[in-house]
Amino acid sequence: MFFVINKEKIYSFIVALSTVVILFLIAMSFNTGDSIHTSAKVSEKLPIYNVETTEKKVAFTMNAAWNADDIDKILEVLNKTNSKITFFIVGDWVDKYPEAVKKISDNGHEIANHSNTHPHVNNLSLEKNIEEIKLCNDKIEKITGVRPTLYRGPYGEYNDIVISAAENENMRTMQWNLDTLDYSGLTGEQMWKRIENKLSNGSIVLSHNGTKHTADSLEMLINNIKEKGYSIVKVSEIMYKDNYIIDKNGIQKENMH
């Protein structure tokens, strides 16, 4: 009888210990799940808004999606000021103004991708976003002989799907941290007031062709930026090509680790 009682106690002890172990493992699995979830949040994809650099360089960008009436004037100013910039061009614009695309390229400016039809890309599937990017790239490469490596979504839209589509085509997604708001009809002086005190190393400036005052204000804007000690460059000239991180504010930084 004595032996039986102890055997039951031993059995009860084993059951209790097993229960504790099982509960511990369950708790650990929940903790692991939380860690994975947190990691997923941290790793949400972001475009590049500007670049952290010690060099006094500002990337000037121009979206081309409307008309091409002012392209000759814009190129004339860029040549006069010895400035090379990045044009983000829509595929439909390439179809309408292939000669303008060729002029931009022949003048040494960087041509980047601004989608094929300028849709609201956040509403598109991964496959449709890839299609928009590829078609625009094909059109630009056919005229210039160079396939773009930079992408900017229409309306400044982006999400993980949009950025993944660009990555699928070995492209980096770009935004901007300084907006001239030229498309709203601002004068050159008003544009300058918007960006003057916000300029910093690695800034990326947004402008558009086909607006009321961009072409006639461009020389003043560029000269004012240079008078502050900054060089005007293409986006690819301030970016890190590898070994970089993009922080939560969209600033591209050299990875020091």
Question: Which key terms come to mind for this protein?
Answer:
3-stranded mixed β-sheet; TIM Barrel; alpha/beta; 2 domains; 15% strand; disordered N terminus; 257 residues; 6-stranded parallel β-sheet; single chain
> CATH superfamily of the largest domain, please?
Glycoside hydrolase/deacetylase
Which residue ranges are poorly predicted, with pLDDT under 50 across at least 5 consecutive positions?
1-5, 19-43
Number of strands: 11
Instruction: Round the mean pLDDT to the nearest integer and report it.
Output: 88
CATH topology descriptor of the largest domain: TIM Barrel
CATH architecture of the largest domain: Alpha-Beta Barrel
User: What characterizes the major β-sheet?
Assistant: 6 strands, parallel
Computed Rg: 27 Å
Question: What separation lies between the terminal Cα atoms?
Answer: 68 Å
Descriptive overview:
- With 257 residues, this protein is α/β, with parallel strands linked by helices.
- It folds into 2 domains: 1-43; 50-254, TIM Barrel.
- The chain contains 8 helices and 11 strands.
- It has helices at residues 2-42, 71-80, 91-96, 98-106, 126-144, 160-168, 188-195, 214-227, and strands at residues 50-51, 57-64, 86-89, 110-113, 150-151, 172-173, 178-179, 204-208, 231-233, 244-246, 251-254.
- Strands 2, 3, 4, 7, 8 and 9 form a 6-stranded parallel beta sheet that branches. A 3-stranded mixed beta sheet has the order 1-11-10, with no helix packed on it.
- Helix 6 links the parallel strand 5 (150-151) and strand 6.
- The longest helix has 41 residues, at 2-42.
- It is globular, with a radius of gyration of 27 Å.
- Mean pLDDT is 88; it is low at 1-5 and 19-43.
